[in-house]
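Box S2. Input/output pair 1.
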Amino acid sequence: MAPVETAEVNADRFARVLGLAAVDLWSELPRELQQTLFERAVLLGHQTERDESLREQLAQFLHHHHERTAAR
C-alpha cells in the first residue's frame, strides 16, 4: 500500500515545483514580476542572522541561471 501523503508534504512538494517553474521561466518573466518574486523570496527565506547573505546568494543563483546572463 502506498503511503498517504500529508497536506504538509504536498504543500512542500507544490512549493518546490512552483519554485522550479519560476526559475525555469525566469528570463521570460516581466522585470517587475522578477523583482516582486525576488523580494518575496528574500523576505520568506530570511529567518535568522545566518540568512543575511541570502539576497546576494539568490541574485548570483539567478544570474547564473538567467538565459541572458548565464553565458557571461
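Box S3. Input/output pair 2.
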Amino acid sequence: MTLIEQVLFIGRGVIVTLKYTLSALAVGLSVGMGLAILRRQILFRWLVDSVVSLIRGTPLLLQLSFFYFAVPGFLGIRLDIWHAGLIAFGLNSAAYVTEIFRSGIQSVAKGQFEAAKSLQIPTLLLWKDIIIPQVLRNIFPALVNEIISLIKETAIISMFGELDIMRRAQVVAASQFNYFEALCLAAVYYYSLIFIIERVTNKIEKTWYAKY
C-alpha cells in the first residue's frame, strides 16, 4: 500500500468519526439541556444529580461496553455497534453538557426569572426567547471544548471494530508492519478536524460577541 493509498484509506474514517461526533453531540445537547432545566425542580434535582454523577464517575469505555455487551444479555435486545455507540457517547456527552448548562443558567440574573413570573410570561417562551439565548452565548466556549473532546473520545469505537480514523490506521499499520506512518496520519486527520472546528467556532464567537 503506497503512502497515497494509506492517506485515502485512513481519510475515509473521517466520515465515521464525524458521524459519531455529530450524532452524540445532538443527543448530548438536547438531553443535557433538558436535564439542566429539569434540575431546577427540587423534586427532580437529586435524580438528575445522581445520573450525572454516575455517568461522569465511570469510564466511557465501560459505558460503551455496557450497552454493547451487557444490555443485550440483560434485556434481550441486540444493539449493533452504531446504536450502542450513539447511546454511550450521547449520554456521556449529556452528563457534561448538563453541568455546562447548569453553570450557564446560574450566570443569568435571578431577577429575569422573577420579572418573567411577574409579567406572566409562559415558561416555554421564557426559556426559548430569554434564557436559552443568553445561556448559549455564555457557555459557547465550553460547548466547543465538548465538541473537541467528543472527536477524540470517539476513537474508543475502534476497539469494537468500527472503521473510524483510528481503526483504519491500525489496519494500515498491521498490514505494513509500520505503526509510525499510520499513527502519524491518524494524528494529522484528528488535528486537522479540531483545527478547522477551532477556527470556525472562533469566527462564530467573534461575530456573536460583536453584536453585544
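Caption for Box S3: Residues 179-210 form the longest helix (32 residues). The two ends are 53 Å apart (CA to CA).
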